[in-house]
Amino acid sequence: MIVEWALDFALLAVGAALLLCAWRLLRGPELPDRVLALDTMYVNIVALVVLLGLRQGTQLFFEAAMLIALLGFVATVALARYLARGDVIE
Amino acid sequence: MDFDTLHWAWQALIAALLIVGGLFALIGAVGMLRFKDFYMRLHAPTKATTLGVGGVLLASMVINGFRGAWLLQELLIALFLFVTAPVSANLLAQAALHLRVPSKAPVPPDQPQP
Question: Which of B6, B27, B32, B71 to mutate to test the interface with A (most CBs of A within 10 A)?
Answer without folding.
Answer: B32
